[in-house]
Amino acid sequence: MKIWVDGDACPAVIKEILFKAAERVGVALTLVANRRLQVPPSPWISFLQVPSGFDAADNAIVQRLEPGDLVVTADIPLAAEVVARGGVGLNPRGERYSEETIAARLSMRDFMEELRSSGVDTGGPRSLSRRDRQLFANQLDSLLAAQAGQS
Fold first, then answer.
1. How far apart are CA 148 and CA 141, in angstroms?
2. 48: part of which helix (H) or strand (E)?
3. CA-CA distance, 45 to 39, in Å (whole number)?
4. What is the C-alpha separation between 145 and 137, in angstroms, rounded?
5. pTM, entire model
6. Are residues 5 and 91 in contact, defined by beta-carbon separation less than 8 angstroms?
7. Phi/psi of residue 97, each to 5°?
8. Is 145 helix (H, G, I), strand (E, B) or coil?
9. Helix 76-84 vs helix 56-64: angle between axes, to the nearest 10 degrees?
10. pLDDT digits (tens, 9 = 90+) for 20-41
């Protein structure tokens, strides 16, 4: 398993959790973004810079994704592609995307986008809470432990 991170929008605190986990279990972690991001020096952690452009980072992740890889993203269309290709999607709030939930998430995303385009102020996402960070860390640990059990 490799871990891919949609790095442009991933909160710094989530990146730190990921960096520590990659070091702890020795799993390859790659942040993908269209602007330079700092990553700690490590044989397990890397950065892939992609050109600017609509969905460039998403496309780079999908092109490199192998079944069983983990992708950390809040981007619902990217998560849908990950799930369709046999990957595991996890958002920074600790919600795991699955075949059972992704269609509903896409529908809600499209509905909210339609509201915003018609001028309705839908607000933004709430701030990442301590509980969200803990849920993310717990889900990540669970996924990594399951992977270790398969090795």
1. 10
2. strand 45-49
3. 7
4. 12
5. 0.86
6. no
7. -85, 140
8. helix
9. 10
10. 999 999 999 999 999 999 999 9
